[in-house]
Amino acid sequence: MNETYAFIEAEKTTQGVAFLCRLLNVARSSFYAWQAAAKGRAARKAADEALAHEITVILVASRHTYGVPRIHAELRRLGRSVNRKRVARVMRERGIQGAHRRRRRSLTRPDKKARPAPDLIGRDFHAERPGTKLVGDITFLPTAEGWLYLACWLDLATREVVGYAMADHHRASLVVDAVKMAHGRGGLHPGCITHSDRGSEYTSAEFRREISELGLRQSCGRTGSYFDNAAAESFWALLKEEIGTRTWPDRATARAEAFAFIETFYNRRRLRKHKVFGHLTPSETRQRHQHTLTA
Question: Does the pTM exceed 0.70?
Fold first, then answer.
């Protein structure tokens, strides 16, 4: 019907409105009501265009990764009172969308001779306080020089990457370096659980010795079960989605981009919905926990 009214509006200078309405079988009162609402429609269209521009700016700042929930949360953080359904509609109408996750290959190679630690997590990827439960894993980034391996430890209370290491190998020393970093900067409590899969790096004597010296407790999921280390797997899927699955020209470039993603964007800029605190970055979640404990 809007097209009919628009046609009458365009032709009314050459033909009378009454004639056009009779010809097209519409009521004149309906046409005049549509005409009166034209300013409102134009204002809404302009407002949607302005909102689309704000959404695009946020999407670019998020490295083209945010979907509707996080874009809506970021708009609210910036003081914009806007309905989530409107954000979804504006994005849908203009084809604005974030990245999509892809499946990743596993690096897990179990050491059949090693006796794995018990599973102290039991798929409960929640922690009341930072520094009490960590999950770790290894992934790889393809470069023209060969693989760059990345090991990370995430704090389950904040989902902050508290420790990581990168190298051209995935021997035990890689995960040892990552857990040392986590212990140095993560404020880990004595007896903090460090959960991983049963890969040979995590069941090695070198890693176990380091865990013992740091006063931590080791935990391992079952071999071949992604669900037993789902929080770490989810982080890898997110990382691959948001930095892309391309081949870097060299390890130094891949290392720089992984560092920038973890330190500049993920820990300090990327919003995540906390069940109590709402949408916060991982570092803000840690600060909120610390403030709550102090209070």
Answer: no
